[in-house]
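Shipment paperwork, digital attachment
Item: protein structure file
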Amino acid sequence: MHAPDDRPFDAPTSHGLSFSGSGAEYFRIWIVNLMLTVATLGIYSAWAKTRRLQYFYRNTQLAGAGFDFRGDPKAILRGRILAVALLAAYHYAFGFSLKVGVVTVALLLAGLPFMMRSALRFRLSNTVYRGLPFGFAGGIKVAYIVYFVPVAIFVLPGALVALMPGNPGVGAIFLLYLCWPLMHGAMKAYQHKHLMAGDQHAAFGLDTADLAKPYVRAFLIGLGVMVVVGLSIGLSVYLARGQKSAAAFAAFLPAILAIVLAYLYMLLMGPYILVRMNNLAWSATSFPGIRITCAMRTWPYLRLQTVNVLLTLLTFGLFRPFAVVRTWKYRVAHLSVDAPDGFEQAVLAARRPPAAAAGDGIADFLGVDLSW
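Attachment content:
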């Protein structure tokens, strides 16, 4: 191990990530995974996931070295079996009896936040760079604070409908979605604040309110779009009064344009929020001697995803693996790591017991992105 001053004078301190894989290579992995998963009634999906993560991680390079994923497919399979059992219980419990349904919902509310934390621990503890394992040090108490309300929104509506059928007050639980920006920000902060590289803990310089700001900007833009849509429709109705059909149609053109504008807004805001939150979260994450920068841009990312969706539809899904590679390449290419003293001096490897995989299976079934 060399002292910082022993490095070559022109040694770079900032390193960008790169991906050496291709869509054609991943297509072969994807199609085999798909056929074997179907042939085994889903059992092979755990091995398929391991192969997928290994392909993407091993082909992602940082400072001349690749990452790796060392998760046990059998552990992932056990997690997925548990996930299927829990979700089946949720869907059918009230068909057996009210008591069974209430107990099932209570178990889900009590267990899912724990599973979400376990998913983070499993995925990160099995991600390795230069022999250095990553990890997650978030506490269980904070996990319940962060995940309980989102889990409740997922679990409670069906339970309340079964308990109080026909009660209009059941829909009030969906008002909790108004707090989604803060919930999403809290989950992001929890994930990034407790990252580990070897025995080094991450520093994270933002709070929940900071991470919710992209939603605020999106809301203000949406408010402006609503004003424009409302004025356009009002103008159309005013101009169309008492006119013949052709003139009336022409008068309604502003309303048609307003609807198109509203639709474009809905398409744009998802990528905008994703890009802004990723930039904020990763650029605020650092380790001793290491600083991360994420500089994704909304319009290029939107164009990328638009082309991906169109080509996937036109090829009846066969372009899907190429779309995944294109998206991964874009996201990786806009991440950079600054390590002035070199990676070998920034962190020390630390051995930790392997984390359980059950939470990772649960996270996949709920559609939550817990990847690094």
